[in-house]
Amino acid sequence: MPKIMMAFPQGKHKVVTMSYDDGQTADIKLVEVFNKFGIRGTFHLNSGMLGTDGRISEKEVAELYGGHEVSAHTLTHPTIARCPKEQIIEEIFEYPNGSYSKTIIEMLPYLGVEYARTAQSTGQFAMPDDLLAWRPTCHHNSDLMNVAETFVNLNKTQYLYMLYVWGHSYEFDQDNNWSLIENFCEFIGNRLDIWYATNMEIVDYLKAFQNLKFAASCQFVYNPSALSVWLQVDNQIIEVRGGGQIHLK
């Protein structure tokens, strides 16, 4: 039986993803930095607050965040762990903040939510074990450059590594440290061994891998999804195209 492991697109084993909240106008500068160095981000917007209190307006969203992901961050940004279920449904369904509870997590799949990031960092590079309580690696103010250097130096291809950075773009104005994210993106960006993905692209890819149909002997595999999935098969990288079936040995 062949030894089979999931790889990221093009056979890579590292992924970088960025997660920024609240849709403040400082996102304009942050997106420029990301685009310059090939970084992909997910921007969590409060749909009921667009265009208010220094936030991006509704008409700016599509163009500004092109090539990135726009995600729900509740309607009006309440502390939803303190809200009744009825209000939670409205806040999530209408298009969370850092608060959550077991009840909220249990409700999310029924509201069409496929992942949810917490504000509790791990300091690690492991893949998430619970997409509905997805813990990032670090906030950008948590020794970011040393974290990035450690990540770049990881070289054991038997593992998958994820660097997940979160924060708020307005913090760079508040802390006067735009050079931090600029230096980070220049250092981590445009590397051939890293997949740069949005949060949802990672979720979709993990689910595409989980949906692969292997023969009992693992001699062949069928991919029922539209996405290609890359596998490491006995140290060889193989692409399983969407809708395709291939022999593995």
Automatic annotation (TrEMBL):
<protein>
    <submittedName>
        <fullName>Polysaccharide deacetylase family protein</fullName>
    </submittedName>
</protein>
<feature type="domain" description="NodB homology">
    <location>
        <begin position="12"/>
        <end position="92"/>
    </location>
</feature>
<dbReference type="InterPro" id="IPR011330">
    <property type="entry name" value="Glyco_hydro/deAcase_b/a-brl"/>
</dbReference>
<dbReference type="InterPro" id="IPR002509">
    <property type="entry name" value="NODB_dom"/>
</dbReference>
<dbReference type="Pfam" id="PF01522">
    <property type="entry name" value="Polysacc_deac_1"/>
</dbReference>
